[in-house]
Amino acid sequence: MSTLFPPLQQARIQGMDQYQALCGEAERDYPAYWARLAREFLSWKKPFTQALNDSQAPFFKWFEDGLLNVSYNCLDRHVEAGRGERTALIFETDDGQVRPVTYRELLALTSRMANALKSRGVKKGDRVVIYMPMSVEGVAAMQACARIGATHSVVFGGFSAQSLRDRIQDAGAVLLITADEQMRGGKALALKSIVDEALADHCCPTLKDVLVYRRTGGAVAWTEGRDLWLHEVMAGQSDHCEPEWVEAEHPLFLLYTSGSTGKPKGVQHSSGGYLLHAALTTSWTFDLQDSDVFWCTADIGWVTGHSYIAYGPLALGGTEVVFEGVPTFPDAGRFWQMIQKHKVTVFYTAPTAIRSLIKAAETVPTVHPKNYDLSSLRILGSVGEPINPAAWEWYYQNVGGGRCPIVDTFWQTETGGHMITPLPGVTPMAPGSCTLPFPGIQAAIVDEMGNDVPNGTGGILVVKKPWPSMIRTIWGDPERFKKSYYPEELKGYYLAGDGAIRNAETGYFTITGRIDDVLNVSGHRMGTMEIESALVAHTELVAEAAVVGRPDDVTGEAICAFVVLKRARPTGEEAKAIANELRNWVAKEIGPIAKPKEIRFGDNLPKTRSGKIMRRLLRSLAKGEAVTQDTSTLENPAILDQLAKAN
Ligand code: 6R9
């Protein structure tokens, strides 16, 4: 099914003709296309003379000799243009209090925080870890780092002490910004005490200071000589801070994400190229105008919160909602109630949220979107995982009132911004398909040798040419960067890690899911190996573990773990108790988002004679399917019956 949509009035991109013209422009002179946009969308202290340097491919450089400052582009230039009184952020707390912040105010706050960081000795190139709740201060902390040329690494507030410690160590961070607690769903959740645990035993020698934002006033333990209240360090700081002009390639941030092997990798992003695509996609995909109120429901701990909360909308001088809480508090009508209250015009969320709100609206009629005035909406967005056609249809009809185009945006932490997406009012939509590449992005589908496959045939999703906001390297591991994203057999194409297929008639892309051992649970990336390592780290109980994903109505995929214990296989109540203990263990090792939904115990795991765990069999078992695959190479076929059942 294809849904044609009438063009939006005065949209940035008018119709498929203009879309084709932009693609054509990029085709004709690729670097010149990006150079034009980089000049239009960004303010440069020193203009660049060359758009692309590919002499050290795949370590591409963009706008290399240009100088700019990201925070200047997001804040100062709007104030200088007389737009300082415009609302930048409409912050709403968990309990519904609203704090609007103008561009002038956000600039002053950012500058004071930047000066506070400087007063603690933080300088250009230093890494700062941000472990904060959704807050004005969280956004300002990112901007403050950008302002002084410090490279931030935001760690999602749901990650455990162990995960936080790994990231601080890997990044070699000198300073950490956190809060006493965070408020979510009416509950105060600790942040500072998790930081204390992460930093115990002097395990992070590079880290000198911990700045603590007072959010709730809850009691916190204090380490003298290390912990400082953010407001005290900021008190008396000037609200003017000259931006540090950095080279376009200067690392703006590291963001850790899961891969198929080993520990999460620190995806390194640039300043100039990254900001260009964040701004450009906010402008074209969301058609952001001065009259819009934009709301991206992501957390700043994920890439979506970087590009579409902290940077893109601000680079354009837009007005956006920033939300501290959760979609289900005080009830599952919270999103709709906030759209009504703030007259949100462009709304961007994840399929998993939509699916859980569909369920809620089906059980509690009062939280159905029809009870709210959502007439301010004009564009809806989706991100993080494939949106199934049923959820798409519900979103389109019940939230968008059948009036609003849905932009199903495919992209990744590594890509910095949208890669394949409809443009609103331009691209005819097809539920479940992310449609066509963003102008200038050379997405394609190839076979294992990098040869194009015909439309209608599935294959590997690649990007044939570099683009400005692409990952620059994996922090501290350039070899892993090359191996993961530019494997030799793929002819120099970027390997996304997803499978995809193009429609034979329309050429539209549909993402068919990861081709590696990465799961997508509620739009969050989790490596199966990472969860397995966490399980076997429980050395007292666990002998062996294998983790697979299985389809789930709400979370997209659910984590299912097969575990062999060091003691006899438990059953009944004992199995339940141990499964619970292991789930909590994983939450402590990685974070609650990594908790397996189901744990099954076996005397053994299905293995080949050479000792390889046969995960594809486990995937069938997890789904509850009969095993139809060839099991002749299996060492111990009898184990399948045992693992087919829940404990
Ligand atoms: C932005 C973000 C990236 C992975 C990606 C893919 C999946 C994201 C999608 C989508 C289908 C979409 N993904 N958007 N799949 N349709 N519109 O989510 O980044 O957390 O790095 O995840 O998410 O599998 O490879 P990240």
Short descriptors:
31% helix, five-stranded parallel beta sheet, 647 residues, single chain
Number of discrete helical segments? 18
Question: What is the radius of gyration computed over CA atoms, rounded to a whole number of angstroms?
Answer: 24 Å
Helix percent band: 25-40%
Termini separation comes to 42 Å
Beta strand count: 30
Ligands and ions found:
ligand 6R9
**Backbone structural class:** alpha/beta
Oligomer: single chain
Please indicate the percent range of residues in DSSP E strands (runs of 2 or more). 15-25%
Outline the structure in words.
With 647 residues, the protein is an alpha/beta fold. 31% of the residues lie in helices and 21% in strands. The protein has 18 helices and 30 strands. The strands form nine sheets. A seven-stranded mixed sheet has the order 5-4-17-16-18-19-20, with helices on both faces. Helix 3 (70-83) runs antiparallel to helix 4, helix 6 packs across helix 7 and helix 9 crosses helix 10. It is globular, with a radius of gyration of 24 Å. The structure holds ligand 6R9. Ligand 6R9 is lined by residues 257, 302-304, 383-386, 408-413, 434, 496-498, 511, 514, 520, 523, 525. ATP binds at residues 384-386, 408-413, 498, 514, 525. GO terms for molecular function: acetate-CoA ligase activity; AMP binding; ATP binding; metal ion binding. Residues 530-612 form the AMP-binding enzyme C-terminal domain.
